[in-house]
Amino acid sequence: MKNVTSLTRRTLALSSAAVLVASLVAAPLQAQAQSRKTSVTLGMILEPTSLDPTMAPAAAIGEVVHYNILEGLTKINVDGSISPLLAESWKMDADGKAYTFKLRKGVKFSDGSPFDSAAVKFSFERAKDAKSTNKAKGAVFNNITHISTPDAHTVVLVLTNPDGNFLFRMGENTAVILHPDSAANAATKPVGTGPYKLDNWAKGSAITLSKWDGFRDANAIKVKKVTFRFINDSAAQVAALLAGDIDGMPRFQSPQSLQQFQKDKRFMVEMGSTAGKGIMTINNRKKPFDDVRVRRALSHAVDKKTFIDGVFEGLAKPIGSHMAPTDAGYVELSNTYAYDPEKAKALLKEAGVQTPLNVTLTLPPPPYARKGGEILAAQLAKVGIVAKIENVEWAQWLGGTFKGNFDLTVINHVEPLDYMAYANPQYYWGYDSKAFRDLAAKHAATTGAKERTQLFGDMQRMIAKDAVNVFLFNATNTAVYRKGLKGLWSSSPIFANDMSAVSWQ
Fold first, then answer.
1. Which parts of the chain register pLDDT below 70?
2. Which of 58, 134, 136 minimizes the C-alpha distance to 393?
3. Fold of the domain built from segment(s) 40-47+194-273+477-504
4. Comparing C-alpha atoms, which of 85, 86, 146 is closest to residue 116?
5. Angle at the Cα of 362 from the Cα atoms of 357 and 367, rounded to 5 degrees
């Protein structure tokens, strides 16, 4: 009996200790699970250089602020459709040159200022100002001839030429509405009408947003705190996901690791479409690239399949002009310049280029650029072009390469319908073609759907024929995130992380 009692006491003591240990282990896990119910941490590849998408070109800005802090008249949804946002309705005149927007009432900026037609007028006049650096200035805002505000909740926009994509343009981050009193500080302290406010920007590390309780539909916002962590190394992205340091990577760029996450029951993997056009950009202003034969030689020197297999494990489509397969009116031109090193050599010789030709290939941080650049350099070497690789940070790329100081570079242009950049000779690749500008102007002035489609195809073919850039890929959007997280976009019609519909199950 004594032995039984001793055993029982010993068993009870061990059981109590086990319960205590279990509770100590469970406590932080429960706390972590509870915090996950109201907060989300997402990984981003690039850190934005500014938080004002109306004045700076980086797509990473929209990933943080668009639809979260700053909003526009319309909203582009995950499937590319358009719905009302700050405008509750609109009407287009029969000639397609005038739009009347009825604004949503009762909306405020997060500093307490009222949202009204005056804020819209200010924002758009600022975007088309002579000193504006808005990347949509030429394609969108310079086409707005007149802005009138009949009352506080009505805006009338009159266009010089009809634009069949105008409502889509009003949903891009270049068209978000800022208040006159806070617009000057939007680069570091953006104030908008969206559901979140900027909480903290730890440069080089993360940006944190907090839910704004004064939002017009605050009860619908389930996530109270959103953190965007900057992780451009693909291996570090994988490690952060596995360690639970981040809850998701909306634009995951380690295709070699996808199977690992597809087999892991803790994660979800979704694949969707993007509007991206991955290109090896050519500086058309520089010799010998000002000769179309040299640019065509570059195109023949590149094996797109090898590039896509090596960088994306095949999860991308080859393209042949500056349009994405998801664009209405897309023309398949990916075989315009078949991989043909001998043809490339012949074109270089015909253009009088002495080989080896030494060039610099400038690569920004994204994995597709750094890894893809190595592949491109090896392919170019086979035709006598020696590409010296120069790795730069994103700010350096924007401050130098994007200003036209480069030979070749690799970049994924993710903005949808940005083909009008080819009508701007001052754009960083320096394509100066009156024929293209005339064609683009004719397309803009045309209202007939059939003729517009034909002209849109002609523009694509002209860009391809002139080999303005080496058109490489349209990447698949791959999102990896923790199970239970709902509402993240699986596709990227624009670069945004709309957190308003995100929640934990």
1. 1-36
2. 58
3. D-Maltodextrin-Binding Protein; domain 2 (3.40.190)
4. 86
5. 125
